Structures are given as C-alpha cells and as structure tokens.
Amino acid sequence: MIRKGQISRRTFLKGSAAAAATLGTPAILHAQTATLKTTAWGGKWGEVMKGQIIPIFEKEFKCKVETDSAFPYYPKLQATPRNAPLYDVLHTNTSEQWQAVVEGLVEPKLDAKAIPNLADVYPYAVSDKICGVSAFTSAIGFGYRTDKGLTTPTSWKDLADPKHAGARGSYIIPVNSLARCI
Description:
By secondary structure, the chain is mainly alpha-helical. It is about 25% helix and about 5% strand. The protein is built from 4 helices and 2 strands. Helix 2 (about 45-60) links the parallel strand 1 (about 35-40) and strand 2 (about 65-70). The chain is elongated, with a radius of gyration of 27 Å.
C-alpha cells in the first residue's frame, strides 16, 4: 500500500532510468576481451605459468587469463552448473581429471580437427593414458642401496620383483597422482 507522498519502487526505478537516459549517462559496456578461466598451481609451477606462459598466451590470443590457485579444484567444478562451468580449462592432477571425465565435467577425448595445433604437441603429452594434454612434466626417479646387495634396477617393473618384498618403500600423496604406480 502506498501512502500519500510516497511512490512505489517500480515507479522510482522507471523514472530514474528515464532521467538517466535524458541526462546522457554513460552506458555500461562489457569488456571486449575474452577471458579464459583456469586452475593453476602455486610454487614453482605457478611462477612459471604466471610469469612466462600466461603473458605469452594472453598476447598471442588477445585474451585475459584468470587463474584459481586455491586447491582443491574438482569439488568447485562439481558444484557449478554443467552449462556454466567455473573453469574453461581444468589443470589438475591425473586422478581428479579422470574423476571429471567419469562425471562428464570435461571432454573425454581430444578432437584433433578442433585443435589444429595438437599435432605440434609432444607424443607423450597426448595419450589415452591421460586426460587432455599434459602441460608440465617432471622426472620421477627411484633409488636403491648398493650396500644391501641390490642389483641395479633397469625398469619400474624390477621393483615389483617378489625378492624385494618387505624391502620396498615409497611415498604416496593421497590427493595427488604422484607415486600412484609404485
């Protein structure tokens, strides 16, 4: 109910909009630069991405890259609508990538026709063993004690030899794919 001397909110908004148009208020324009939303690591990986890779990418593709480095990423992606995902690119551990594929949150296969420069990627970086394209790689190695009479391993399979039962050791980071194969 409107009392004498009061106007409704709707009437006020209509009048304000008409007044703003009459006064020539500047229009609100949206940015013309596309924004790519992705996840990013901290530490050395993050320094390389933000200091070297992202600026080159932004310049070449005339876009802006926004990164989220607040791990974990997968639950955030799960919580967003499928028709408006939080990220355009999911850069995360292999285990989370496969979970995202199973849930239909990322594309299961790369379409070489839609990605013309995929042919320029190293063969190990695209495989049916990984989701998407591997952006970074790092060496994983193993050590052994010659003072215990161990022979030099020549492959990862050598570590599975039953003669090493009770003598093997490894580390596993539960939220990471690092050392999952040991």
